[in-house]
Automatic annotation (TrEMBL):
The lineage of its organism: Bacteria, Pseudomonadati, Pseudomonadota, Alphaproteobacteria, Geminicoccales. This is SulP family inorganic anion transporter. SUPFAM superfamilies: SpoIIaa-like. PROSITE patterns: STAS. Its main location: membrane. Residues 451-560 form the STAS domain. The keyword NADP does not apply. Gene3D superfamilies: STAS domain. GO terms for biological process: transmembrane transport. It comes from Marinimicrococcus flavescens. The chain crosses the membrane at residues 35-56, 63-84, 104-126, 133-152, 184-202, 209-226, 256-282, 354-373, 380-398, 404-421. One of its GO terms (cellular component) is membrane.
Length: 578
């Protein structure tokens, strides 16, 4: 039998893909491919980074700092060849709520703490467990985030003037916006509609063109040439700087650390899920395989670095990563060059950003929100089993009406209960089931003689076959089936050959059955148990003298019949002697 493959070592798990690619004779042709892909992604990321930052309640330059610093670190240290890091639309809700509660200082500290949490998760090799988030949960919270993003952009899309601050909760926000509808600005609506129409038209007729950048530039030109009274980045924020700030540590006071820790945990959870989902998408497009724990370490380092420069949360971005792959990227150098191109754009074209209408950026995010909704997946899940639809609906509604963390946790909890229920139903307990293969015409008579005939002639011997994963969800059902076997049999054979897994609850259930059988003077034979299952049973007290282990069911039956025969002979001898 072939031995188990050796576990990968630390170096293999955490070596960045950049090192792997550079070892593969990286040359001028690969650099040209990466440079072109990096430029293409930078053109896409430029307006998107500013739009996400503004929607998150911070200045647009912080979105650029995040894409430049965080994006460079993700590509340089990551476990995926094609991952593009930066600010993501999925974080808008969490970031905006953190800014409202704790201000910019609290946001920067929460970003740093989330980076440290992701670093620890990566080095503890927890990346595999993040992949266990059920599919309906990811579809549900993504759709919920998309709806919240769209609602957050209605004020800019319609040019509304609110009497006070815009509420954070979804229903309160909609109520405040509906009351402000009479203040709608037709110039803002015109700019937003023009931007969305141009993006959609370019995607249809010129899918390889940078539709978002072209649409934002065209909308800015329209607003400037027509002198439209719309709010711009310059009128609200005064423009963006032409260089990166000097790195500095955020406020590390214990009080603020404790206050923002829940937000940091939420950032880390969503960042881990989003980045690994993005890496999986890249793998499916290229046939490559990413290193999940190395990717978490890179995401952690990127968030720490982003916080030092005043940036916001960094994660892997699915749309920009897919653009990177479609643009012909060869490896992580493309992502690093994308960050450098963004820095160059900021140094050269920062003054022009002041003319960008906020309605155009809101329209861009509205298109992003629409693209985030996995409509086909939602339709499929709603047609699937009722449990899947319930997990989807619960995650979606709680994400929208409460918060993202509650939605994910509730969806994961429901999905886990659904899985436990299905696994418990898959466990079967059969009494007196056939214990050999069906008769075969070319077999000898002795080989074709089934054990069932012998069992039928000896009611004091009961065979019980357990099949399926014997875990806590199935323990009650298996225990009830064993209790119904009655008190007459003097020997039980438990066939474990079809049990692939046994947890402590299952082992304790068998121990309780053995204890009752021993009180009645019966002997229990455990047949076909795998080494791991045998160890678990022994650990929980399922051991001699009340239990006998045999390697196969025929061996256990032979031993049980021999023991019963000896007991009968002994009883007969005692009766004769008396």
């Amino acid at each position: 039998m072939a031995g188990r493959a050796a576990e990968p070592g630390f170096a293999e798990l955490f070596t960045p893909k950049l090192v792997t690619v550079l070892r593969e004779r990286y040359g001028p042709s690969q650099l040209r491919a990466d440079a072109l892909a990096g430029l293409t992604v930078a053109i896409v990321a430029l307006p998107l980074s500013m739009a996400i930052a503004i929607a998150s309640g911070v200045t647009p330059d912080r979105g650029l700092f995040t894409a430049i610093v965080g994006g460079f670190m993700v590509s340089a240290l990551g476990g995926s060849r094609f991952q593009i890091g930066g600010p993501a639309g999925a974080f808008i809700v969490l970031v905006a709520a953190t800014v409202q509660r704790h201000g910019i200082d609290g946001l920067v500290l929460a970003t740093m703490l989330s980076g440290l949490i992701l670093l620890a998760a990566g080095f503890l090799r927890l990346g595999t467990f993040i992949k266990y988030i059920p599919y309906p949960v990811t579809v549900g919270f993504t759709a919920g985030i998309a709806l919240i993003i769209l609602a957050s952009q209605l004020k800019e899309l319609l040019g509304l003037s609110l009497a006070g601050p815009e509420p954070g909760p979804f229903l309160a926000k909609l109520s405040a916006l509906s009351q402000a509808l009479p203040s709608a600005s037709w110039p803002a609506i015109l700019v937003a509609a023009f931007t969305m129409a141009l993006i959609l038209a370019l995607r249809h007729y010129r899918p390889h063109w940078p539709s978002m950048l072209i649409a934002v530039v065209a909308a800015s030109a329209l607003a400037w040439l027509a002198d439209l009274p719309v709010e711009t980045i310059g009128s609200r924020f005064g423009g963006i700087p032409r260089s990166l700030p000097l790195p500095s540590l955020p406020d590390l006071s214990p009080e603020l650390v404790l206050a923002v820790l829940p937000d940091a945990l939420a950032f880390a959870l969503l960042g881990g899920i989003e980045s690994l989902l993005s890496a999986v998408v890249a793998d499916s497009m290229t046939g490559r395989r990413h290193r999940s724990n190395c990717e978490l370490v890179a995401q952690g380092a990127a968030n720490v670095a982003s916080s030092l420069f005043g940036g916001i949360c960094v994660t892997g971005t699915i749309a920009r990563t897919a653009t990177n792959v479609r643009s012909g990227a060869h490896g992580p150098v493309a992502g690093m060059l994308h960050a450098l191109f963004l820095l160059l754009f900021m140094l050269v074209a920062a003054p022009l950003a002041a003319y960008i209408p906020l309605a155009a950026l809101a329209a861009l995010l509205a298109v992003v929100a629409w693209n985030m909704v996995e409509r086909h997946a939602i339709a499929t899940l709603l047609r699937a089993a009722p449990g899947e639809a319930l997990v989807l609906a619960t995650t979606f509604l709680l994400t929208v009406l409460d918060d993202l963390t509650t939605g994910i946790l509730a969806g994961f909890g429901l999905g886990t209960l659904l899985f436990v229920h299905r696994m418990a139903q898959a466990v079967e307990v059969e009494r007196g089931a056939p214990v050999m293969e069906p008769d075969r015409a070319d077999g000898a008579v002795a080989e074709r003689q089934p054990y069932d005939a012998a069992l039928a002639s000896n009611p004091e011997l009961v065979v019980v076959r357990i099949s399926g994963a014997f875990f806590f969800g199935a323990a009650a059902g298996v225990g009830g089936a064993l209790d119904r076997l009655g008190e007459q049999p003097r020997a039980f054979v438990l066939d474990f050959a079809a049990v692939p897994m046994l947890d402590s609850t299952g082992a304790a259930t068998i121990e309780g059955f053995v204890r009752q059988a021993r009180r009645r003077g019966a002997t229990v034979y455990v047949a076909g148990a795998r080494p791991g299952i045998r160890r678990a049973l022994l650990t929980h007290g399922v051991r001699p003298p009340g239990v006998r282990f045999r390697s196969s069911l025929p061996a256990a039956l032979d031993a049980a019949r021999a023991r019963l025969t000896r007991e009968e002979m002994q009883t007969a001898a005692e009766a004769t002697a008396s």
